[in-house]
Amino acid sequence: MEIGRGAEAVITLEESAVRKWRIPKGYRLPELDEQIRRERTIREARITSEARRCGVPTPIIKDVLKFDLIMEHIGGQKLKDVITPALSEQVGEIVGKLHKAGIIHGDLTTSNMILRDGRIYLIDFGLAFHEGSVEAQGVDVHVYFQTLESTHDRPDELIDAFALGYARTQPGAEAVLERVKEIKARGRYL
Amino acid sequence: MIIFGLEGTAWNLSAALVDEKRVIAEKSATYVPAKGGIHPREASQHHAENMAKVVGSILATAREQDLKIDGIAFSQGPGLGPCLRTVATAARMLSLRIGVPLLGVNHCVAHIEVGKWQSEAQDPAIIYVSGANSQVLALRRGRYRIFGETLDISIGNAIDKFARSVGLAHPGGPKVEELARNAKQYISLPYTVKGMDLSFSGMSTAATEAAKKHDLADVCHSLQETAFAMLVEVTERAMAHAEKSEVLLVGGVGANKRLGQMLNTMCEERGAKFHLPDRKYMGDNGSMIAYNGLLMLKCGIVTPISESHVRPGYRPDEVDVVWA
Ligand SMILES: Nc1ncnc2c1ncn2[C@@H]1O[C@H](COP(=O)(O)OP(=O)(O)O)[C@@H](O)[C@H]1O
Ligand SMILES: [Mg+2]
Q1: Residue of A14, A20, A113, A117 to mutate, ligand 1, most atoms within 8 A of C-beta
Q2: Where do the domains of chain A lie?
Q3: How open is the CA angle A131-B132-B93, to the nearest 5 degrees?
Q4: CATH number of A77-185
Q5: What is the rounded CA–CA span in Å between residue A183 and residue A179?
Q6: Beta bridge partners of residue B138, listed in sequence order
Q7: ipTM score here?
Q8: Is A107 a catalytic site residue?
Q9: pLDDT (tens digit per residue) in A147-174
C-alpha cells in the first residue's frame, strides 16, 4: 500500500515495515539518474543509522537494496501539518545533536520530520553528509528557516524557538545562527 | 484600461503598452557588453541613450491609435542600481507629463504574472531562471513565497561565465544550447542541491576546467544536463512540499528548449501540468511590467513619487499580491 510520495521516492507499507523506492527520473540522463539514486540510497541507509546512534530519533534501517530501503514504519503526523513553537524547539534540539556529531542532514524541511507520541523523528537522509564546518551547519539551518518562512504562518516565532533548542544541544550555536543571516543575504541580486 | 510599462533592470531596455487582453506595442533596445559581463554603469548609459527612441516609439503608437494611457508602470527592482535609476527617472517624468499614476513593479513578480497571463496556469509552483536569479516560488496567503533559490550565482550567470571562459560570445546561453546538440558523451560535473536550494558556482568552474581536456560540445551538454537536472529536482521538491500540481517556467533561461523538455517530462511522470509561456515573454520585457502595473491599478494600488525610489534588492515575497 502506498503511504507516501515525496519528490524522489515512493513509500509503501509492506507488513509492518516501510519500503522507500527511489524511482527513476526520466528527465535526467540515465547515467546521472542511476548514480544519484544509488548514492543517495546508500547514504541514507548509513547516515540514518548513525544519527540514531547519536541520539537523534530516526527509523531503524532493516535492509538496503540498490535503489530501495526497508525501514521501520513511523506512524505519525508530518510536522508540516502540526508544527508549533514548542515542536520547533524540539527540532532545534535534534538538529543541534546531529550537528554536534558532525552530521549535516541536507534537506531539513518540515516534510522530512514525523511526530509520533510527542517525539520528532528525522527521515530522508539522502542528501546527508559528514562535515563540521560553520558554513555547512549554517546552510542546513538556513534550509529549515526557509521552509518555515515559505510554508508556515508566523515563522519568526518558530525560528526563535528553534534557536533556543539548538543552543541547548549545540555548543557552537551562536556562530552558526550568525552565519545563517549571512547566507540569507547571499545569492540575492548581484 | 491601458498601461505603459518600462523595463530596464539589466541588459534590456524595453517599453510596452498593454490592455487587459493583449500587448498593443513593445519596443526594446538591447545592451551588448563590448567584452566580459554586464557593466552596470555602461548598461545604464545605454538605457539613457536609447530612452527617447524606445519610449517615443511607444508614445507615438498610442497617439496614432488614439489610446489614452491610464498609468505608467516601471520596474522598481530587483536590478542593477544605475539601470534602475535611469528607468525610474524616466518613469517619474512620464507620469508627471501625462498626469497619470506611477506604478512601481517588482521585476520578478512581473515575470510570474506575465507567465500566468500568457498560459493557463492557475496555482503553479514557479521556476524563475534568469541571468540574475534562480528561484522556486509558489503563492501562499497572498505572497509569492521563495521555497528555494541559489546560494551563490544564478543559472544564467553560471552559463554565461562558462561560455566566456571558453571564448563564446555574449550571450552564452543560446550558443551553449546549440553546441550541446552535437555532444557524444556526458562528463560528470558537481551536482549540488541543498534541500530546495542550489549552488552553481562549483559546477561552472568545473565545466571550465573540463573544457581544457574534453570536446566543447560534450562539456556544454554536460553543463546543461547537470544544472537543469538540479533545477528540475528542486522544482519537484517544492511541488511535493507545497502540494502543487502545476509548474510554470519563467525568466530568460526559460527559453532553453532542453530545460522546458526536462520540466515537461518531470510533470508528465508526476501527473502534473507544465506551463511554458511563449518565448517572447521569457526574457526581460516591457509588456510584463505594463501588465503587472495593470493588475495593480485595477486594485487601486499606485506608487506615490515619494515612494518611487529604486529597490535593487527588492524580494518577490515583499509584494502583497492582492490581485491574485
Ligand atoms: N519510515 C517512515 N514511516 C512512515 N512514513 C514515512 C517513512 N518514511 C517516509 N514516510 C512518508 O513518505 C514521505 C516521503 O518520504 P521521504 O523519505 O521524505 O521521500 P522523498 O525523498 O521522496 O522526499 C514522507 O514525507 C513521509 O510522509
Ligand atoms: Mg522527503
Answers
A1: A20
A2: 2-72, 77-185
A3: 145
A4: 1.10.510.10
A5: 6
A6: B125, B145
A7: 0.94
A8: yes
A9: 999 999 899 999 999 999 999 999 999 9
| CB atoms A32 and B225 under 8 Å | yes
- B275 Cβ neighbours under 8 A, 6+ residues apart: B115, B119, B120, B121, B124, B246, B247, B248, B249
Q: Of B70, B91, B81, which Cα lies nearest the Cα of B6?
A: B91
Angle between helices A134-151 and A85-100 (to 10 degrees): 160
Q: What are phi and psi of B18, to 5 degrees?
A: -130, 155
Q: Taking CB atoms and an 8 Å cutoff, what residues of chain B touch A182?
A: none
pLDDT given at position A190: 46
Lookup result for grid cell 549554517: A138
Contact indicator for A79, A110 with CB cutoff of 8 Å: yes
Four-CA torsion B277, B303, A185, B289, nearest 10 degrees: 20
Among all bound ligands, the one having the nearest atom to the CA of A20 is 1
Torsion of CA B295, B297, B299, B304, to 10 degrees: 130
Q: What is the CA radius of gyration of chain B?
A: 20
Q: CA-to-CA distance for A107 and A84, rounded, in angstroms? A: 20
What span, in angstroms and rounded, lies between the C-alpha atoms of B90 and B180?
41
Ranges of residues in chain B with a pLDDT under 70 are: none
Domains along the sequence of chain B with CATH? 3-111+281-318 (3.30.420.40), 120-276 (3.30.420.40)
CATH architecture of the region A2-72: 2-Layer Sandwich (3.30)
CA distances from B129 to A11, A17, A55, B252, B256 (A): 31, 41, 40, 6, 10
